[in-house]
Amino acid sequence: MDWKSPVLLDEELTIGDPANDKEAELSRPFRLLVDDQGNIYVLDIQDGNIKKYAPDGKFVMTIGRKGQGPGELQGPMSIQMTPEKELLVDCVISSRLVYFTPEGAFLRETHLAKIPRALILADGLGDFICGFPESGQTFKEVLAKFGSDQEKRFRIAEVDPHYSEIYFPFAPGIIFNVTRENHIVWAFTDKYEIMFTDLQGQLIKRISRDFVPVEVTAAEKQDMINRQGPPEQGAKIPAVYPPLQSEFPTSDEAGRIFIKTYERAADGVSYFFDAFDASGRYVARIPLKQVRRVPIVWENDKLYTIEEDESGFNMVKRYRVAWRE
């Protein structure tokens, strides 16, 4: 296909290359956060801490450490900046939310006695948007909002993954995020339909797009089985991938939404992200090499990714972003 991207990406910074800076080396970077000043926070789930870097990439400090005590992190899975400018770390294994200042001081922690073990994002009202599994007569993946008192406010969406019928890497799930405009953006991975819900649970926008299914090759099927085990009895490996990958939708300061597909670029490594503007108009497809299940970050006309080099090291990359007219 003769295709020209409307987005120009110019690599300008690498963080975590052990050949350049041993102190800045990353073990297993899993989440990124960038503040208003351009400081970069990297959640390292192997080391159980947050590594802070200045805008020029220089290592500043380590925030938190692995453990179960006050200010310690056990099983951290996400990091975000709250509206109050506090660092919020979701420790899924220990069912805690741990708060720090951007300067690294421990503030407090909240034990999640009423919220299911979940992936949690704070919204602009001080409440929580949570994705979690729910067992009952049938197993479901659920997206719901809980208040700061941990009481459930409302359910946004649910889906039956049909694990008994579909090999679990292909099972339907829910991807979600909270945008800068404080909208909940979410989608079922087996449908190309992106929903925008306000913080009261009302649907305010819907984006849909036709897509060409991507075939699952025999080599890819075997690779999945080698890495994740064979399908359960009766479960099938589909002939094609679902339209959307199980990764966070992300947004930039212009209100664009980016969502990851299974379409590969010509290099065989990068996947295409579809981009939509604030009105929901499809505007671009962008090939990126980001590590699987590690969200990208768009901030102040910069793109931040975590990528793997030829030796298997994971490093943070920053690109200057320019959109063609």
Describe this structure in words.
By secondary structure, this protein is mainly beta. It has a single domain, classed as Thrombin, subunit H. About 5% of the residues lie in helices and about 45% in strands. It is built from 1 helix and 26 strands. It has a 4-stranded antiparallel beta sheet, with no helix packed on it. The protein is globular. The two termini are about 20 Å apart.
In terms of topology, how is this protein built?
Elements: E1 7-15, E2 29-34, E3 40-44, E4 49-53, E5 59-63, E6 65-66, E7 72-73, E8 76-81, E9 87-91, E10 96-100, E11 106-111, E12 119-122, E13 128-134, E14 140-146, E15 152-159, E16 174-178, E17 184-188, E18 193-197, E19 203-208, H1 218-228, E20 250-251, E21 257-264, E22 271-276, E23 282-288, E24 297-299, E25 302-308, E26 314-323
Parallel strand pairs: 6-7
Antiparallel strand pairs: 1-26, 2-3, 3-4, 4-5, 8-9, 9-10, 10-11, 12-13, 13-14, 14-15, 16-17, 17-18, 18-19, 20-21, 21-22, 22-23, 24-25, 25-26
